[in-house]
Amino acid sequence: MSPSFSFRPPVEALVPYEPGKPIEEVQRELGLERVVKLASNEGPFGPFPAALEALARCAEELNRYPDGGAYGLRAALAEHHELPFEQVAVGAGADGVIDSLLQAALGPGDELVIGWPSFPSYVIDALKLGATPVRVPLAGHRFDLGALLEAVTPRTRIVAICNPNNPTGTMVARAELDEYFERVPEHVLTVLDEAYFEYIDEPDYPDGIEEHVKAGRRVLVLRTFSKIYGLAGLRVGYGVGPSEVVTAVNKLKRAFDVTTAGQEAALASLGGTAEVERRRFVNSEQRAAVEEILRGHGFEPVLPAVANFLYVDTGRDSAEVFQELLRLGVIVRPLGAFGAPEAIRVTVGAPDENAFLAEALGRLVPAS
Question: What pTM, to 2 d.p., does this model score?
């Protein structure tokens, strides 16, 4: 490539999202017999049986392109939420919907307001477009909706609220969100990111689709099949909101971005209510166990946590803690890229994985 060639300034300055290390790579690099990945907030259980059956059925047709409009899945999601088809957008994970939405809404000079630390895709995608991400510090590790509103200017196009917030695991309660929507200016589109919705069993947690989309708010609610449904490797997410927002998202999404396998597995998973409830219960039990494990080894997780992960301020460079645990076979998430350089995020695993974490922490630091 010619030395004179250059990319757009926002791209030159961009620090890309760094995914967690795969288990196989860590085993190979460090010669470990067992590695437990508690870094990426995946569910510890695989696809539902009905999803596995659907994957087997569609395997012989994978020489064909998928349904580019994801018609069957969109129709099923619309029926599931009792909303018109035109109010549902499907993407390659919730990330895919975020990417398309921000392309549709943001340009140079526009602003996106978000609490910080939080999910970095909003900041990265805004920067790609030459827009300005306005990072508002959290209050007590929670989104401060009043401070977000104060940060809104005439240039603000989007306010992103992650509820619960990744990486802190904390939630915004119903009354706070109601007040926010009463005050947010008309020119702002709110993105309500509910990627961990199915894990939450708190009476004061608001359901964005039922309470705000159906009330006609200017809001796009995001959900995903990557977490409790066990389909992270297939990348299927969706957004629900006003039809004009969904239309704009669909104009920007890549053709065939959600695979046939992803569509069929997600479609088959929608009927698994009992299994969702079982996994929610197991996660709640194991989250409490991980809380005790962390406390027993000198760490104080941020509470109350409501999803399938815990946030821990280590008091030192989290990259060092990450490397120390990595050598012991446990992959956690250092949070420098999320705006918290001294914190780690620990995903709640299956019981044996959490026991392995306890053993590794015992070798890392003395119990307090």
Answer: 0.93
